[in-house]
UniProtKB/TrEMBL annotation:
Residues 7-154 form the N-acetyltransferase domain. SUPFAM superfamilies: Acyl-CoA N-acyltransferases (Nat) (SSF55729). The keyword Lyase does not apply. Transmembrane segments: none annotated. Keywords: Transferase. The keyword Transmembrane does not apply. InterPro entries: Acyl_CoA_acyltransferase, GNAT_dom. Pfam families: Acetyltransf_1. One of its GO terms (molecular function) is acyltransferase activity, transferring groups other than amino-acyl groups. It comes from Spirosoma pollinicola. This is GNAT family N-acetyltransferase.
Length: 182
């Protein structure tokens, strides 16, 4: 098991881009759409740059996470998480957790009220994610309820509700890209 103190979490830099795209291809193999999503998010105003994070272990980038910002029917801004990937040989060694905790700590001091994601129901509840439908927060497409999840930040109020409008980089049929991984 990797010593968590040896994992450095930091924003992605331009020199990292080939490595993070290769990481997306490896983590989400055989689906290349996630690497395309990474490229599109980087070029988009919807990306939250402080939350385009890599996990570095010595000279190797072993994990990558991106958050974007978008609106919900109630008029609030919410923060979709996608993608989150860890190199296959480094999975289940708490690198994904380190990235998630770093990002959620940053978001806790931000005005964002809610994080949303389409993800593995057995993974995200450990960080405090709950079924988003229970909060009146809906995806813009049909999903099994357990995979559509939300995390309430300190700025959350029950007025934050409605349908989440995913930003443009998630077009190209990317919305359901994680469906094969559940
Ligand atoms: C899902 C993923 C990001 C998790 O990152 P990770 O670094 O492997 O996960 P962690 O080591 O932080 O996991 C923390 C705990 O969750 C467990 N866990 C990891 N992946 C899990 C999964 N897919 N389902 C259920 N539990 C999982 C770990 O075993 C660990 O348990 P422990 O605390 O009892 O030791 C990573 O496995 C990955 O990149 N998978 C392929 C791409 C993918 O599916 N991304 C997410 C799409 S929603």
């Amino acid at each position: 098991m990797i010593d968590p103190l040896t994992i450095r979490i930091r924003p992605e830099q331009s020199a990292d881009q080939p490595a993070t795209e290769a990481l997306a291809l490896a983590a989400f193999d055989p689906d290349p759409r996630v690497a395309e999503l990474v490229r599109r998010l980087r070029a988009s105003d919807s990306l939250i740059p402080e939350l385009n994070l890599v996990a570095q272990l010595e000279d190797t980038l072993v994990g990558h996470l991106m958050f974007s910002r978008t609106s919900i029917t109630s008029g609030h801004q919410v923060a979709p998480l996608s993608p989150l990937g860890v190199l296959p040989t480094y999975q289940r060694q708490h690198i994904g957790s380190a990235l998630m905790k770093h990002a959620l700590n940053w978001l806790a001091a931000s005005p964002y009220p809610v994080v949303v994601l389409e993800g593995v129901p057995s993974y995200y509840p450990r960080f405090g994610f709950v079924p988003a439908h229970d909060l009146g927060i809906d995806p813009p497409f049909n999903l099994p309820p357990a995979v559509w999840q939300a995390y309430c930040l300190p700025a959350y109020s029950s007025q934050v509700k409605g349908t989440v409008h995913y930003p443009e980089p998630f077009d190209l049929n990317l919305l359901h890209l994680t469906g094969d991984f559940f």
